[in-house]
Design brief:
The chain is mostly helical. It is built from six helices and two strands; from the N terminus they run ααααααββ. Helix 1 runs antiparallel to helix 2 and helix 2 packs antiparallel against helix 3. The protein is rod-shaped and about 105 Å long. The protein starts with a helix and ends in a 13-residue tail after the last strand.
Length: 230
């Protein structure tokens, strides 16, 4: 083997070694990058989940206080204790929001800012810092749950999750707070005034007669001329 062939062999060996080294380096770098992204996504998921959980806890306590103050449903603790619970929950919500500021993407951070503003209006009407009617209360609860859905959308997009929680496939639903209050009001009215049972007793009876017609009989009138509902 002459000198030229020797140099060609050496060059081929060096080129192969360099190629192998560069390929290994690129693969290792990609692996570390993937591990880093996975680790941050995991931390983001924990932060997003914790923030929504703390937000819902604050809403629950606000609803409990509002119903107690407005005579819808008596609370199991005193109003002072409820206010203390709301204050403690608010601090936890603030800490959860700070994690969003540290880890969240741009859209997630903006959605959290909007959600915080909506949730504070619910808190303030519950503890009496701002005035509002029952209709205002319901709308503020609906708005804060729409804000939670918007936050979910931003978080899912940031984490690369397919699908969504709003849109044509997910029609808007009444917030749990508003729906629960409506059910309790209907139950209270029927219990106090006997609406359901009165309606059943007022229903006329029908008796079939030959010819296919039906005779309707109403409850017997009371002495004052009104139908008796006994």
């Amino acid at each position: 083997m002459d000198a030229g062939e020797q140099w060609a062999t050496i060059a081929a060996v060096l080129l192969g070694s360099i190629s192998t080294h560069l390929t290994t380096y690129a693969m290792e770098r990609q692996r570390k990058k993937h591990e880093l992204v996975t680790r941050w996504d995991s931390k983001k998921l924990d932060a997003y989940e914790g923030y929504v959980d703390s937000m819902r806890s604050c809403i629950f306590l606000a609803v409990q206080l509002y119903e107690h103050r407005n005579g819808i449903r008596a609370g199991e603790t005193s109003e002072q204790d409820m206010l203390a619970e709301m204050s403690a929950a608010g601090r936890l919500r603030g800490r959860a929001f700070e994690r969003i500021m540290l880890l969240g993407g741009d859209d997630v951070v903006e959605a959290a800012h909007e959600l915080n503003a909506l949730a504070l209006k619910v808190d303030w009407q519950a503890n009496g810092k701002i005035d509002g009617t029952l209709a205002d209360w319901r709308e503020r609860n609906r708005a804060v749950f729409r804000g939670i859905n918007d936050f979910h959308e931003a978080a899912r997009s940031d984490l690369g999750v397919d699908g969504g929680v709003t849109g044509e496939k997910h029609p808007e639903r009444e917030s749990p707070a508003a729906a629960g209050a409506a059910r309790r009001r209907r139950w209270s009215v029927s219990r106090v005034f006997g609406v359901g049972s009165a309606r059943r007793r007022r229903s006329p009876t029908r008796t079939s007669v030959p010819g296919g017609r039906a005779l309707t009989s109403s409850p017997p009138p009371s002495p004052d001329g009104h139908c008796s509902v006994r």
